[in-house]
Here is the input.
Amino acid sequence: MQEKTINEYILSVSDIVVKYKRPLKAFVRSFGCQLNFSDGEKIKGMLIKMGYTMAEDEQSADVVIFNTCAVRENAEDRVFGNLGFLKHYKEENPNMIIGLCGCMAALEHVTDKLKKSYKFVDIVFSPSAIDKLPKLLYEKLSGSKYAFDTNEYNLSAEGLYQERDSSFKASVPIMFGCNNFCTYCIVPYVRGRERSRKPENIIQEVEKLVADGYKEIMLLGQNVNSYGKDLEEKTDFPDLLRKINAVEGDFVIRFMSSHPKDAGRKLIDTIIECEKVGKHLHLPVQSGSDEILEKMNRRYTVEKYMETIDYARSFIPDFSFTTDIIVGFPNESAEDFEKTLELIKRVKYDNIYSFIYSKRSGTKAAEIDDKISDEEKGERMTKLLAVQREISTESYRRFIGRTMRVLVDGKSKKNGLLNGKSDEFVIVEFEGDESLIGSFVNVKITEAKNWAVTGVIE
Ligand code: 5AD
Ligand code: SF4
Here is the structure.
């Protein structure tokens, strides 16, 4: 018998859902990175197509899906903690269906644990199988005990309806998976090999978003600079940026993340030449020590990394950089850590995202016998953050007196100010009316803090 298509499964589930005497509700909680949140929007989209309405919280939902992250152990612990709460809700409402997907669902130790100790979890599917949700939900609603699909499909699901969280900021995945195998990272094991979407599908999606009034297009991929390597057509990420830049309309283009090993001159030239691309690059360096970089299998040196920074700043002296840093990679010495501090002072990042190394079993780094204590790692982290706070304040001062274009994001409950992100991806705070949320305004900067700048609307 031929397998039903996704749309047939969607119809089969909606046939069951309409038979209930009340509207059924669903709740999706996403953890982790923006790619995962983008998957979460697609999961919500499928649930809506199947006849569910979105619930305000887990407690009032008939279907709860946890879309999980596996990058660090504490993310995993949080999910297991939250599952504990769901168990109580399910005791009150035994018909509640609980699903778990995202990166944790692709880890064997997690699925084993679910089967053994979390039997109340009904549906499990891996990140490359999100379009299997209608099938699994149908099986569960038809009386199956478990509905698990943790296979790796290597698909890049096209055409799924996406229930977007924002009406003016949209994320657009351009590729899935990662081939790099940095030694600390679990992503290549859970998200599979690189699969690029076809340029025409991406352009079409962007055109539609811009026509619908979206003002920020965030292109996503684990390593956007590998875009196109697996496509028949000869193309690359800078080519894609140029095509998106040519889409008519008033919007800002951002992207995340870039791997320094292949973020070269062509990328910088393209960012500079494309007027819609924010003059900002998130370039995760991870460490300022060449020895650690080698052990991480990052395939660049600090000097090579600096070439990209210096090249960009030879055109735009204020070019904005942000980065990711891992503190306490196994056996990172005090000298290695000092080199990271030196590097952040040299680059003058606007912001850094720093993480204490988390051991992920199955990765190469997990095999290293680590002699550095957790206490030492904690102290290094505190030091890193203190140094960066000073750098940020100093670095943000360059914007004082200047006018920045800001996409207004929201209003702070704390101080009543509006906030948003400038084209350089800097947080800007200012007084203004809530009706401005979702539009661009020009703000003249008057003050620099260690995490944002403030100013007045012009
Ligand atoms: N431990 C700590 N941080 C990690 N990252 C990835 N894997 C780990 C790990 N095992 C960080 C890297 C990456 C960011 C998304 O998460 O800095 O750039
Ligand atoms: Fe992980 Fe490295 Fe791939 Fe990023 S590039 S997802 S850090 S393996």
About this structure: The chain has 13 helices and 19 strands. The chain has four domains: 6-149, 166-278, 280-399, 400-457.
